[in-house]
Amino acid sequence: MAKRERGMHELYTDDPERADALVFGRRTGRSRRGFLKGAGLASMGAALGATIPFAGNMPAGLVPAALAQGAAAPKGPKILKMDGKADLIVLGDRPLVAETPAEMMDDEVTPTEKFYIRNNGTPPDAAKMPSDPRAWKLKVDGEVDKPLEISLGELMARYEAVSHKLQLECGGNGRAFFTPEARGNQWTNGGAGCAEWTGVRLADVLKAAGLKSTAVYTGHYGADVHLSGDPAKPTISRGMRMVKAMDPHTLIAFRMNGKEIPLIHGGPVRLVVPGWAGSLSAKWLTRIWIRDKEHDGPGMGGFSYRVTKAPMIPGDKGDPKNMAILESMPVRSIVTFPAHGARLPKGTSKIDLRGSAWAGDNSIQSVEISVDYGVTWTKAEVKAPANRFAFQRFSASVPVPSAGYYEVWAKATDSSGKTQPFQAGNWNPQGYGGNPVSRVAVLIEA
């Protein structure tokens, strides 16, 4: 069965409309929607286990969301088993990478146990860390007048602590939606979370160090160990322009959801750089190097955390000269209720739904919902963020005509006017910025 499903997705990747014909016997007319003279409708309905009330609107070459779920993991997802963590989906073991299922992101503030995990190396050995977290030290050096070496305890005593609900998101979130497949962990939408972070403003610390006029970029280092075991080799070291470093929401954080940051999430101290690729938010922070040029640490060159300046041919090798550093993350919405694959009781006449949306440095202007394959859209109610960079929750109630198989589509538009595309666009070799319309399959019992 698994082999047959993989074959189906390979067919759809190669030629979606030919796959329609081969898999379901489906043909469409000039509108490229629906089922010409019913061709293939019975087969697809049988595969979905229900009638399809809006079958006449279904675009040609569309893999139903209920069947698309099997593409990334035909044998079923591997579930994380770790004390203090929920059943996240493991995308990689070494380093550990685990995403949060959409239905677990049904909170304004993501509980720590549900927060995604993205490591680049091996976390520092807890047994070799200071027994008192306040003894943890970090330094700020480079293009500053007064280099600092400061303990966490001193940091907490000298600078004002602030708490914000801030979203973090892996730069590769949404990578699984690219066709052809891009390199890297195949995140769907679960490489994101919005915790309440408490810490001091990085800007306050940098002002105390005294930035020189030559300071243009940061470089971040953590205490995690490279997978090679070489203690002198950074796992990753990314940096940002000073304007982002000086944003009052960019924090040196020491609490997550009101408690000490767990080791797996970078405790006792980490950076939180909301809205930009999560790799900037260095865990187990030990050093911030202020540079007089764009930082050139591991993770800053080639195709790493870079998107195309001009569109390239999907699947092509790519040209490093055509790449620009990924900064603000793109607009994204996800439906967190009902869960993908939910079965609603007989007699259901409307689908009540809710979800989360966010947009890097921007805010959410609107979220629209469709249950008829994008022919009509209903505006969702969108709440204001608790603060800048927080998730924005949305909800809607959309009527449906009868029992059967539905897909709930959600698309968000950000404050700059950018809207989620139907398919992941701007393909790039390492798959950054994939933010297609969110799709959830729902079946209403007959």
The share of residues in helices is: 10-25%
Quaternary organisation: single chain
Derived from helix and strand composition plus strand pairing, the structural class reads: alpha+beta
Shape: elongated
Strand content is 25-35%
Q: Based on DSSP secondary structure assignment, what is the total number of beta strands?
A: 24
Instruction: Count up the helices.
Output: 7
N- and C-termini, Cα separation: 26 Å
Q: pLDDT below 50 for ≥5 consecutive residues: which ranges? A: 1-5
Radius of gyration: 23 Å
Indicate the mean pLDDT. 95
- Biggest sheet details: 5 strands, antiparallel
Structural topology:
Layout lengths: L1 H13 L1 H9 L16 H8 L16 H4 L9 E2 L9 E5 L2 E4 L17 E2 L18 E6 L5 E4 H7 L2 E9 L22 E10 H8 L7 E6 L19 H4 L5 E6 L2 E2 L9 E3 L12 E7 L14 E3 L14 E3 L6 E6 L4 E3 L5 E9 L5 E7 L7 E2 L1 E2 L9 E8 L4 E11 L23 E7 L2
Parallel strand pairs: 5-13, 17-24
Antiparallel strand pairs: 1-2, 2-3, 3-4, 5-6, 7-8, 8-10, 9-13, 10-11, 10-12, 14-15, 16-18, 18-22, 19-20, 19-23, 21-22, 23-24
Can you walk me through this structure?
The chain is α+β, with helices and mostly antiparallel strands and 446 residues long. It is 12% helix and 28% strand. The protein contains 7 helices and 24 strands. It has helices at 2-14, 16-24, 41-48, 65-68, 152-158, 202-209, 242-245, and strands spanning 78-79, 89-93, 96-99, 117-118, 137-142, 148-151, 161-169, 192-201, 217-222, 251-256, 259-260, 270-272, 285-291, 306-308, 323-325, 332-337, 342-344, 350-358, 364-370, 378-379, 381-382, 392-399, 404-414, 438-444. The strands form 6 sheets. Strands 7, 8, 10, 11 and 12 form a 5-stranded antiparallel sheet that branches. The longest helix has 13 residues, at 2-14. The radius of gyration is 23 Å and the shape is elongated. Residues 1-5 have low confidence and may be disordered.
